[in-house]
Amino acid sequence: MVGIQPVESSTAVPDARGHFGRYGGRFVPEALIKALDQLTEVYTEARSDPEFTARLNGLLADYTGRPSPITEVPRLSEHAGGALIVLKREDLNHTGSHKINNVLGQALLTQRMGKPRVIAETGAGQHGVATATACALLGLQCVVYMGEVDTERQALNVARMRLLGAEVIPVKTGSRTLKDAINEALRDWVTNVDTTHYLLGTVAGPHPFPVMVRDFHRVIGLEARAQMLARYGRLPDAVAACVGGGSNAIGIFHPFIDDPSVRLVGFEAAGDGVDTGRHAATLFAGEPGMLHGALSYLLQDSDGQTIETHSISAGLDYPGVGPEHSWLKDTGRAEYRPITDAQAMDAFQLLSRTEGIIPAIESAHAVAGALTLGAELGPGALLLVNLSGRGDKDVDTAVKWFDLLEDK
Amino acid sequence: MTARLGPLFEACGAQHRAALIGYLPAGYPTVDGSRALLQAMLDGGCDLVEVGVPYSDPVLDGPTIQAAAEAALRGGVRLRDVLSVVESIAAAGGRAVVMTYWNPVHRYGVDAFARDLAAAGGLGVITPDLIPDEAQDWLIAAQKHDLDRIFLVAPSSTDQRLASTAAATCGFLYASSLMGVTGARDVVSSTAAELVGRAREYAPGLPIGVGLGVRNSAQAAEVASFADAVIVGSAFVTAAGAGTSGVRALAADLATGVRRPAPQPA
Ligand SMILES: Cc1ncc(COP(=O)(O)O)c(C=O)c1O
């Protein structure tokens, strides 16, 4: 059991105020600073408290089902130019995605802070479901903000959250997607900060969220690195993950940062294509700016207004990205590439049919990326792909995309 | 550095009253419409206007200001229009500061924005999502172009942060009277007076304005009894629905409030 572990050399970043190079920091109203300071303090304390780590690692093992396995996928790999693809199976976690790793950590911190109420944003609904689950488990009150567009395309997850006892509030402002759900959660937080923890679901937001959420997800990469060494006797040539806010990607990337032979490749949502303007490829096409409390790459217009994004994947449909990814891009340690809706849906179907694994559409972006990456790396290459979630929630979208209910 | 807003607070002090500050977003309902509304606020009795920069993600604003900002953005308002609105106010002899979320300024270029705002006759900037800890380039630009830098404090601010925020502030300190987003409220919470009391200890001589929730002359009078400025936003946005006459009437009503001794609690 790997669990939460201290981070060594690759933590020259962030600095004490949450800066990854020029990125990160805290661009938030003063009203939130006290809560962010408290969270930083409680988190720092908890990390080195054996009781806390034992409790968290216990839940990760007995409740979530960690360690998640790695699965070799030879029939999919036939489409990857001779490279061998290995999936890290975060889809097998309880609640169906990587999101639970971070949620359990923060839910325990909420208890430690003595706050009775949790709020969260959700795009695909996976973070909302994980949060509702942890709140049910720990007896916390739970409110989830979700863009109205997303409540429609991820209706199954809305029902799951409600079953778990959470209140789901559809957000009708702006683009009615993830960005606006975060705005609404921040407004709630600023109003109710004394009683409420904002359980942010990705590595974006003001310090300490990017570093704390990363640390809760590092278990993905720590396990995978050990599993690859044990099974193949060597490290992968590349690690691939999809990038929305960037939590599953940083979780699997981070333990490999100090392995120079391992390429780190993030795949962003290119929607209809990066040159159509209808996409969410923040690192590929954005420029530095502030959104939701941190400086990072951002899809914005020439006046600094956030641009509305498009992706078939609700979890990647976000104009911002976690600041550590911006830093990894600028330093060249990681690279970020766009994957269109069509490429992702092809990979979604291919993985389903070749391996019997229906991925989340978010994760299908990483699978699609791995297919092209494998072709570039060539025969004999070993590719580790983070399968961040499972696709049950996406069946409706797939039905529409592939016309599955038409008799043909 | 002497504050650009120093003379305003001296004049109000000499009259033993609080200043009245009104907010409206530029470009609402149109750029020229907002010019007229802001002028009407000054004509009605505001001592200073905050010209708001409409922003796509206003996390510190409630529904009223959100809707106005969204309408202004749909109308195509640009940051250079905000500067032109400031310029017309200043040209007519009025005092204006800009209220803005930070990304539009970051994108424009912090120094370039400070330069152009100063050239337009603006007196300073209120920065709801920029704390002094992250404001190094703004502090430098503001000094260089002689602009006031108005930071916010909140009921949750620790004494230490009240001190450091006050030290970075020039013009006036903006005290958000309660925890929450903008929007008119029926009662002015008692946390406002407490916050101002605490802030005074760390900000001797620095004027303190109180905002978030004030909408009528009685509330204005109450806030004026303990603060140096009464700041009104959402109520003006609502009044803007009735055009310049609505805005002028609200300003006039509030102006009597800031001149009236506070009603004694029964
Ligand atoms: C399965 C899955 N993968 C990935 C993401 C994207 O988030 P992140 O980039 O933080 O991993 C989501 C978000 O909803 C998700 O549900």
Would you kindly provide a written description of the structure presented here, covering whatever features stand out?
The complex is a heterodimer of chains A (408) and B (266). Chain A has helices at residues 33-47, 50-64, 74-77, 99-113, 126-138, 148-153, 155-163, 178-192, 209-232, 247-253, 282-285, 323-331, 341-355, 361-377, 395-402; strands spanning 19-20, 23-24, 70-72, 84-89, 117-122, 141-147, 167-171, 196-198, 238-242, 263-271, 287-291, 294-298, 334-340, 382-387. Chain A has 408 residues and is an alpha/beta fold. In chain A, strand 11 (287-291) and strand 12 (294-298) form a beta hairpin. The longest helix of chain A has 24 residues, at 209-232. With 266 residues, chain B is an alpha/beta fold. Chain B has a single domain (6-258), classed as Aldolase class I (TIM Barrel, Alpha-Beta Barrel). In chain B, strand 7, helix 9 and strand 8 form a beta-alpha-beta unit. Chain B starts with 5 loop residues before the first helix and ends in a 7-residue tail after the last helix. The mean pLDDT of chain B is 94. Chains A and B meet through helix 1, helix 8 and strand 11 of A and helix 3, helix 5 and strand 6 of B. The complex binds pyridoxal-5'-phosphate (PLP).
